[in-house]
Amino acid sequence: MASEESKRNAEALVAKFQFERILNQDEAGRRITLYGQADSQPALLILDRAPFPDAEEYLSILPSSLRSITNLGNNDIYSWSLASGGPIFTHDENNKFADFKISMICPCTDKHIKKHSKQGYRFVTETPEIYRDKVRPFMEISREKGHLNWVYNIIEGRKEVEDVIYRTPLGRDGDEGFMMLPNLHWDRKTIEALYLLGIVERRDILSLRDLKKKHIPWLRHMKTKLVDATVKTYPQIDTDQLKLFCHYHPTYYHFHIHVVHVMLEATSTQSLGKAVGLDSIIEQLESMSGDDETGMDSISLAYTVGEASDLWTEIFEPLKNSDTASQPR
Asked: Residue 115: what pLDDT?
């Protein structure tokens, strides 16, 4: 057990740290390693953002205590901002030292609540038959509920116009039109956390399941344009520092491509069974036998699914229970 005197000395040493340079910073911005001097000795200071307290007395006043809130954008029910929770510096007029990135969904739906709640996960296999008979109809019903207004706002130039990094003129290229802009979860500053979205204009491709051999030239063209536009906009990035992938299942059923820095922390959204590399999709299509209509709907796909999601409760849990019930005792 450390003595009280050693504890006080350790605490005092932190205050004596004299910063010289940054050694490292994680791509999510939660940890930074500083080099400097303390008591005339070389020293490292490693700072981690502490977990949020779960005390109600803290959380109930947190939103109203945020300062220098600057909205980065808003679209339909979604908005995202930067804010400061600490002392305001006299030269912080533009949120230079903002320590909170805030995303807000208002009004949110039960689907949002399920998605963002803590839950268990299952690893499932979606066969072509399950996709055809159960998942595809599920996707179509989800689309009919009208949760894509924010996507259409972007495509049709009603929202986030100033954020667009690249786009083909609306309607010019027909089914091959697309655009790219920052993902709302990126702070627009931390290059190693770069996160962009390529969104297609056409509305008949709900997910990678709808991609066919005939789409290979279009997919290659999009990849080239998305990568070129990214490195042109952010010249500090090389082409081999980018990853392009699609989610399956995606958060919303309108085909889009994720463009991220290779240093971006591999969270659950990039894990096995969730992120499928664009190059892998193209190679899979190229290797398929059959005509140009042969596609990704003809193979089995395995992925993780949350136990609170409708995919699990409406499709895969009943299938599992049915298989269990049919097994001999």
From this structure: 77
* Domain 119-324 indexed as CATH 3.30.428.10: yes
Residue 83 Rama label (left phi>0; alpha psi -120 to 50; beta): beta
User: Each residue of 275-301: b (16+ CB within 10 Å) or e?
Assistant: bbebeebbebbeeeeeeeeebbbeeeb
**pTM for the whole structure:** 0.78
How many whole angstroms separate alpha carbon 41 and alpha carbon 37?
5
- Alpha-carbon distance of 155 to 164, in angstroms, equals 10
Question: How far apart are alpha carbons 200 and 291 in whole angstroms?
Answer: 24
The token pair at 37 is: 């001097």
On average, the pLDDT of the chain sits at 86
Q: Determine the Cα–Cα distance for residues 19 and 8; give it in Å rounded to an integer.
A: 21
CB atoms within 10 A of CB 83: 18
Q: What is the Cα–Cα distance from 221 to 125, expressed in whole angstroms?
A: 31
* Below-50 pLDDT ranges, the chain: 1, 90-92
Q: Helix 216-233 vs helix 278-287: angle between axes, to the nearest 10 degrees?
A: 160
Domain boundaries, the chain: 18-50, 56-105, 119-324
Burial of 67 (0-12, 13-18, 19+ CB in 10 A): middle
Beta bridge partners of 54: none
